[in-house]
Amino acid sequence: QMCEKFTVCENSMEMLVRNNLNLPKVTEEDGDFLTFLSFQDKCLRKISSGLYTFTTYLEYIKETFTSEKQNIESLCYSTEHLARTVRQMVINPEEVTIPDSATQKSLRTKLKSNKTWIEKITTHLILRDFTSFMEKTVRAVRYLKNTRSFSV
């Protein structure tokens, strides 16, 4: 929808220049995905921490992508609920990184721009990376569910 409504597409040069958001993701530093998943607790901590971080980014989108405010509100609620649920599965839930309110406020301020096209690109990047993160989360949960005595 972003591409159609705002002509913000994957191959846009502005997107490549602007992509300094440091969004949560599973990277090569985490090792091979299956190896990464073999450490169930570490995996769940990373997923929960990532989801909590994404809630801040999704709040920013709710403020800027007003035409989809109701959908984004639902996405924010669902993401935070999932983050809490996964956090409860971690052996030591206090080890899950949750951004404090000052960090969240600082990030939202940093994301704001007086240029609409930058906001659109930022929104697109956040949603793209959130989709990728959720795809890996689903794979991780399926893997954990199928290989462990793990219930979701």
From TrEMBL:
SUPFAM superfamilies: 4-helical cytokines (SSF47266). It comes from the Eukaryota. One of its GO terms (molecular function) is interleukin-6 receptor binding. One of its GO terms (cellular component) is extracellular space. Pfam families: IL6. The keyword Lyase does not apply. Keywords: Acute phase. InterPro entries: 4_helix_cytokine-like_core, IL-6-like, IL-6/GCSF/MGF. Signal peptide: none annotated. The keyword NADP does not apply. GO terms for biological process: acute-phase response; cell differentiation; immune response; positive regulation of receptor signaling pathway via JAK-STAT. Gene3D superfamilies: 1.20.1250.10. Belongs to the IL-6 superfamily. Cytokine with a wide variety of biological functions in immunity, tissue regeneration, and metabolism. Binds to IL6R, then the complex associates to the signaling subunit IL6ST/gp130 to trigger the intracellular IL6-signaling pathway. The interaction with the membrane-bound IL6R and IL6ST stimulates 'classic signaling', whereas the binding of IL6 and soluble IL6R to IL6ST stimulates 'trans-signaling'. Alternatively, 'cluster signaling' occurs when membrane-bound IL6:IL6R complexes on transmitter cells activate IL6ST receptors on neighboring receiver cells. This is Interleukin-6. It comes from Calypte anna.
